[in-house]
Automatic annotation (TrEMBL):
Annotated Alpha-D-phosphohexomutase alpha/beta/alpha domain residues: 2-129, 159-256, 260-369
Spans through the membrane: none
Limits of the Alpha-D-phosphohexomutase C-terminal domain: 374-442
GO biological process: carbohydrate metabolic process; peptidoglycan biosynthetic process; UDP-N-acetylglucosamine biosynthetic process
Co-factor requirement: Mg(2+)
Organism: marine sediment metagenome
Protein name: Phosphoglucosamine mutase
Amino acid sequence: MRKYFGTDGVRGRVGVFPMTADFAMKLGWAAGQVLGAEGVKEVLIGKDTRASGYMLESALEAGFSAAGVNVALVGPLPTPGVAYLTSTFRADAGVVISASHNPFDDNGIKIFAQGGHKLTDLQEQEIERWLEVAIDGGMTCVSSDKLGKARRIDDAAGRYTEYCKANLPGQLSLNGLTIVVDSANGAAYKVAPAVYRELGANVISIHDTPNGVNINERCGATSMQSVMAAVVEHQADLGIALDGDADRLMMVDHTGCVVDGDELLYLLAKDAKAAGYTGGVVGTQMSNLGLEQALAKLEIPFLRAKVGDRYVMEQLKANGWRLGGEGSGHLLSLNHASTGDAVIASLRVLTCLLQQGATLYQAKQDMHKFPQTLINVRYTAQEGVDPLNADNVKTTVAQVEADLGENGRVLLRKSGTEPLIRVMVEAVDASQAQACAKKIADTLA
């Protein structure tokens, strides 16, 4: 069990333990102890546009230096960009300072191993063991002649931009397309518009003026209203929305309707199948039933992992597959990127559309999404008591599942951060999904 690392690194409210400068320094030192023992000599550190990133960057730098590990600073850059540059600069590990889609007053620290892959559970557990040593006052410092050195890489964004552009086949161009790009005032505010523009698109860039506190604020992949409106206003061909660290992708068709991660994953899987891909697709417990049914029609195997892109990645590696993702927009195409990369995923979708001569609206018609209702039910935690095992709850769920049959789905899961049970129901129509979810929620209340 991990005490500080969640599904996506360490995350919390800035200024409140563990997201403090003191903790970040000790985390850097602890990571340096573990990774240094594995032969790590240099760590590459990137961040998004939150004001707190400067504080945490300096603290991490101090911790790694004290452990004798060199640091290369790349400044604001998408999480997948840091993962990519960790490999290309031959750094031994990478760190991203970001809370992804969270508000500006949160922040987080993610650590990548060599090659841009997330750390294993065992590595994170070992880092936490050293972290406890530091918190208990046992943090040490190497001798002055062995302190880690720091350097700044000035052309990191340009290198990543070129890498992204290479994911559109050379015979294709975005000439003639008008694309609205919402960068969420986040890490991709320079890179993303530049990529599409340099590939020939007429780019209308919105939410690209970060000020340290407006990241994800009513914009980006978690708040689609402005990009939807901009697509309609400018009569654009489509819209692209990223989150604060650009590892989530949501899109908008020319009518102003959202095309989510499940629909985009289907488009990528269908195209891959046509190109000879023989593997399957990994979604999560929250992936829409419509995705599963659409893939079944194409005879593409489908598995569900726990919620979180790290668990999707685990299933992909275990099965030797290359495609996976979440409805929230984390998309994994391991032939093209080692982690979720929103810009590259969007270019893969654009490649599909250009090769088919189809609009995004036309391409998504093959998949029918089931209306989904999600209700959060708060409960009082009692030792030894699991509300999900109550007889009346089990009976109600069984009744709902029998009523839905193959035309719906029920999922109950506990939140990992607060005493909530998330009740999710999918059904043929929205009113049925709402009624069934409420029936279960009332039983839990």
